[in-house]
């Protein structure tokens, strides 16, 4: 993270740290990755004992910007353009109990999601702490530094692999039906689901934390040593067939899964 982005993040953290309910503030996201640049947003995470009311969050944002947007559609959040630097700021608000449970879900209970299982773990692990009132987040981050639990790998496969094409209502079956009726909306929806489960499996068998929604093919090629050789080509073929309502979508999806199966078989997950 460059000094200008860090300075913006620190001033936001200082302001929210003045609220007694706030336990920690951290920065994560693309600014901490190797491909960040000066135009990248700052992703700031504010952790509090109780939820911070929207009017208070917005009021604090107006101290830094003339236009603050409240985006509580996917969870509590505010966005603005920093008045002094023009840097985009995205602030996400999570409660202490909620994020603690998200980490316990994967590291203690080994519960898999339908795609994106380890994203919150990833966010905690890569975060840079800006404020930590009682050292709570440092302890949470210490817990996040443990090895990938093998039971979690198995749980992710058990939850995500059958829906690709094994069960009667599999994504493959749904895609073929959608292509036959020329249903582009359904094709788009189910293609996203296929890829969500595909990448969740791929990152899991490589014991790599899921990095989120952006640059997944690039990151899989960079981080996953166990991956299909033609992964990029096969994924692109599925997306293109889906976008064109190509009735060969089933062929493309089968090819994608066949290549994944070879990796799973070589690693002992499939007989």
Descriptive tags:
single chain; 271 residues; alpha+beta; Beta Polymerase, domain 2; 2 domains; six-stranded mixed sheet; 12 helices; 6 strands
- In the predicted model, the low-confidence regions spanning at least 5 consecutive residues are none
Could you say what the CATH topology of the largest domain is called?
A: Beta Polymerase, domain 2
In percent, how helical is the residue content?
Answer: 40-55%
**CATH class value of the largest domain:** Alpha Beta
Widest sheet: strand order?
3-4-5-2-1-6
What's the helix-strand series? Answer: HEEHEEEHHEHHHHHHHH
What can you tell me about this protein's structure?
With 271 residues, the protein is α+β, with helices and mostly antiparallel strands. The protein has two domains: 3-144, Beta Polymerase, domain 2; 150-266. It has twelve helices and six strands. Helix 8 (171-180) packs antiparallel against helix 9 (184-205). It is globular, with a radius of gyration of 21 Å.
Could you provide a short overview of the structure?
The chain has 271 residues and is α+β, with helices and mostly antiparallel strands. 51% of the residues lie in helices and 13% in strands.
């Amino acid at each position: 993270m460059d000094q200008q982005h860090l300075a913006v993040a620190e001033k936001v953290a200082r302001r929210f740290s003045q609220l007694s309910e706030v336990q920690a503030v951290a920065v994560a996201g693309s600014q901490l990755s190797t491909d960040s640049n000066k135009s990248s947003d700052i992703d700031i995470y504010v952790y509090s004992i109780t939820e911070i009311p929207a009017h208070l969050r917005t009021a604090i944002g107006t101290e830094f910007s003339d236009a603050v947007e409240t985006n509580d559609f996917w969870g509590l959040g505010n966005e603005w353009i920093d008045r002094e630097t023009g840097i985009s700021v995205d602030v996400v608000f999570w409660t202490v109990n909620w994020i603690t449970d998200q980490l316990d879900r994967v590291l203690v209970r080994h519960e898999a999601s339908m795609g994106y299982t380890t994203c919150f773990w990833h966010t905690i692990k890569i975060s840079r702490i800006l404020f930590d009132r009682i050292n709570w987040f440092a302890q949470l981050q210490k817990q996040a530094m443990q090895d990938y639990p093998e039971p979690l790998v198995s749980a992710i496969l058990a939850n995500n692999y059958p829906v690709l094409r094994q069960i009667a209502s599999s994504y493959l079956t749904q895609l073929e039906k959608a292509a036959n009726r020329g249903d582009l909306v359904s094709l788009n929806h189910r293609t996203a689901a296929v890829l969500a489960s595909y990448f969740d499996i791929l990152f899991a068998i490589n014991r790599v934390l899921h990095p989120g929604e952006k640059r997944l093919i690039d990151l899989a090629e960079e981080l996953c040593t166990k991956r299909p050789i033609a992964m990029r080509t096969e994924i692109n073929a599925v997306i293109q067939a889906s976008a064109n309502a190509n009735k060969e979508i089933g062929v493309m999806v089968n090819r994608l899964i066949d290549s994944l199966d070879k990796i799973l078989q070589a690693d002992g997950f499939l007989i």
